[in-house]
Amino acid sequence: MSTQDIIDTLAGIVPGSALDAIRARRLQARENAQKSYLSLFEPIDPGDVSLVERAAVATFVTGLHGESPVAAFYRKKLAANADGARLLAAIDAEIARGRTSGPYGSYPAGPLSVENTAGLIYRVSAASKTALGARLAAALEHAHLLVFRPRDAAAADMKALLDAGWSNTGIVTFSQLVAFLSFQVRVVSGLRTLAAASA
Amino acid sequence: MSGTVNPPVVFTQDELGWVSWIDPLPEAELTDRHYAGLVDRARAKSEYFRLLVRDPEVLEARTKTDKDIFYNVADGLPRAERELAAAATSRYNGCIYCASVHARFASTYSKRRDDVQRLLDEGVKADLGERWNAVVKASVALAATPIAFGPDNIAELRRAGLDDAEIVDVINGASFFNWANRLMLSLGEPSK
């Protein structure tokens, strides 16, 4: 592959190491996690979700998980985008406002209702909404729901995105992006923990 | 579509349907590019996959990642325990649909249907024996935000007999369901 494997890079896995050999046993998964990253962040055609929107959402989502090499990576990507640097202050402010602990949320009414857990219903601040625009502000609110309380998601949340100018296809790409990052940040964290425990 | 939805209100190993909240692509509009994204042609019958195929490159890469993490059993963790990691993650995140599919697989491959049902009924604290408890606890720690997975989870998995390659299978399987759960939960809903 021409591009360096992003999970290996972020997890600090070097060629010839024990974890490099273990990851090589799941070559198709390794290569397609990489292709997922590339198709989300270096798409041939960005289509309905611009590159700056992708970087901004990624910075927010990984930042909500706390300081990490993954969060630093996406923040750098946003800063490097010509239209992205001006969004950094607002995204940083929203990460600070949005940080909490999950998963929480409610189940359909019934026997599981005893497991319902209340938590932050995050909304972008008025000041940040001006800086980010309605479309990106709606994306951050939905991304926060996906990160911390995915079981609260409802048809009305799709309508909110459609009303803010997101297309059906754009919603699919954006949802994949948030969901993929939820995977990537955990694989990197897990592999780093395993490497440290084996040192 | 929504007129016929009958959402389940408990975790179950029964087969469930899934109904999209936004428009999947009609089957008649699928091109070769979409079929490449679906990987398995039969997935064109599924509303979920016809929705995700709106971004075919991402769907293709996601599907191939999924298949290798769960189906490549040439070595590493037994399939039953990869499915257990998927079911436990889904139980903790609250994805009734994903939990139903992967609890069924865990039951099929482990022949421990009652234990799997206890995970669904009692939740992720159910006592399922040392090895399964370690897998469930590691999956839950990975699913938490901020991530709570740490050296204690690794030590516990090792004490339960897992080697590092098997631990990577737990990490991959549990992490993957943090991807899958968020799509299933947010783009539509299960129906009995």
What report would you give on this structure?
The complex is a heterodimer of chains A (199) and B (192). The mean pLDDT of chain A is 97. In chain A, 64% of the residues lie in helices and 0% in strands. Chain A is an all-alpha fold and 199 residues long. Chain A has one domain (6-198). Chain A contains ten helices and no strands. The radius of gyration of chain A is 18 Å and the shape is globular. Chain A has helices spanning 6-11, 18-24, 27-41, 51-64, 69-80, 88-98, 126-132, 134-148, 155-163, 168-198. The longest helix of chain A is centred in the last third of the chain and has 31 residues, at 168-198. With 192 residues, chain B is mainly alpha-helical. Chain B is 60% helix and 4% strand. Chain B has nine helices and two strands. Chain B has helices at residues 32-38, 47-52, 56-71, 79-93, 96-110, 113-122, 130-143, 151-159, 164-187; strands spanning 17-20, 188-191. Chain B has a two-stranded antiparallel sheet. In chain B, helix 7 packs antiparallel against helix 8 (151-159). The longest helix of chain B has 24 residues, at 164-187. The radius of gyration of chain B is 17 Å and the shape is globular. The model of chain B has no long low-confidence stretch (mean pLDDT 97). At the A-B interface, helix 2, helix 3, helix 8, helix 9 and helix 10 of A face helix 3, helix 8 and helix 9 of B.
Strand and helix map with partners:
The complex is a heterodimer of chains A (199) and B (192).
Chain A: H1 6-11, H2 18-24, H3 27-41, H4 51-64, H5 69-80, H6 88-98, H7 126-132, H8 134-148, H9 155-163, H10 168-198
Helix pairs in contact in A: 3-10, 4-5, 4-6, 4-8, 4-10, 6-7, 7-8, 8-10
Chain B: E1 17-20, H1 32-38, H2 47-52, H3 56-71, H4 79-93, H5 96-110, H6 113-122, H7 130-143, H8 151-159, H9 164-187, E2 188-191
Antiparallel strand pairs in B: 1-2
Helix pairs in contact in B: 1-3, 4-5, 4-7, 4-9, 5-6, 7-8, 7-9
